[in-house]
């Protein structure tokens, strides 16, 4: 016993002795002692002798081995050495528990560094998927898919991914959007489906599923309305995965969006037949959106081209003639057009947003326009007009020129039609700005989520109080935590309780301010 005790200490204190080498040494020592037993010693001494070797070389140094080398082995995905570590630790009491805890701590540490680093937000989801794949491989190959390790890995991911509230949910939604957009040629449909399954694993860990829903729905609406969806099959496959995970209530509105698109397609075909009598040079396609299904868009009043106005009015009469009692509200934000343009080097087709088309059509009636004149003629809101002019005069396809040159749009800038414009493609897409998220859009989406959460908290409190009639403050909080599906702080619940008391939904007990009564 003393020999093995000193041997273990000497090796662990040796600065040149790495953990993989120590594990190999212990493995060889166990085998050599077993072989010696078989040849020279009485079989009855086998168990006490091997127990001594295990105790002095493994059990006594469990914490030291984990502290000295586990991170390095996991970082390098050294599966064979990790498998040996798992085997040796499995021979001593508490060894696997210590390994499991150290593995859990490692996953939380590494995961937290990925989630909390805002500078790496763009690659966060890809990094998380890679980290999940790497740790899954360790659990399956090295830790033999032990239930204890499977559960600890799941628990560690749930903890660290929610340490940064809401952002991971938003970024996962945006990652899915980037993969489902047209032009994503990185993957085949089979590879995309496998990737979406992996994303769903991360989705299960996040607590703010309402944040994911809000951003996913916003991006889905853009893909459908601007015609940027790569595949309807992939879209419906993702929707089916979400439905399976969260139930029909979670995806009901998104499924409604697809129904609207199908109905709109049929209505547009019927209108085209009807519009032949109008002798219009414009081919109009309209998407009829059910207000409750789609994200909320702020109404924008812009000055449309007279021919567009004529066709809008004709469509209104056609549609309301078939569906009396309904009201149409025109939304210009995600409208898009294909303009035919004649340049010195030949004709081109420009795929542009509605706002871009309103600016470009001005140049049919004049050669030079100032920023103020364009704003007056189109009534496009200031920030939106600056973005629009930037995309036309400062982007890759500069169909108009800006004086003075520069990336920023100033009030005194002048714009002229670029007759010398040339491009290798016949149809040029300039409306990518419609797919880009503005800071205001991000803020509005987040604010809507928090507003919806307030309504859900209020509804939960009233529902609980209606059923219980009388409850103490702590019991009410406990029941709310149990019912709400998103993370909420006790201080926020207290504010909602105060609001409901002010609105006479409930009241405090006269003799006990810590007790609430439901007001029928």
Keywords:
globular, 9 strands, three-stranded antiparallel β-sheet, three-stranded mixed β-sheet, 520 residues
Describe this structure in words.
This protein is mainly alpha-helical and about 525 residues long. It has helices at about 1-15, 20-40, 45-55, 60-75, 80-90, 95-115, 125-140, 145-160, 165-180, 190-205, 210-225, 230-245, 250-275, 305-320, 355-360, 370-380, 380-395, 440-470, 475-485, 490-500, and strands at about 335-345, 345-355, 370, 400-405, 415, 425-430, 470, 505-510, 510-520. The strands form three sheets. The protein has a three-stranded mixed beta sheet with strand order 1-2-6. It has a three-stranded antiparallel beta sheet with strand order 3-5-4. Strand 1 (about 335-345) and strand 2 form a beta hairpin. Helix 2 (about 20-40) crosses helix 5, helix 6 packs parallel to helix 8 and helix 11 (about 210-225) crosses helix 18 (about 440-470). The model has no long low-confidence stretch (mean pLDDT about 90).
Terminal residue distance: 77 Å
Cα radius of gyration in angstroms:
33 Å
Low-confidence stretches: none
| Number of helical stretches of at least 4 residues | 20
Beta-strand fraction estimate: 5-15%
* Overall mean confidence score, pLDDT: 88
What strand order characterises the main sheet? 1-2-6
In oligomeric terms, what are we looking at? single chain
Helix content: 55-70%
Report the structural category.
Answer: mainly alpha
Question: Given the C-alpha coordinates, what overall shape results?
Answer: globular
Biggest sheet statistics: 3 strands, mixed
DSSP summary, beta strand count: 9
Listing every helix as H and every strand as E from the N terminus to the C terminus, the arrangement reads HHHHHHHHHHHHHHEEHEHHEEEHEHHEE
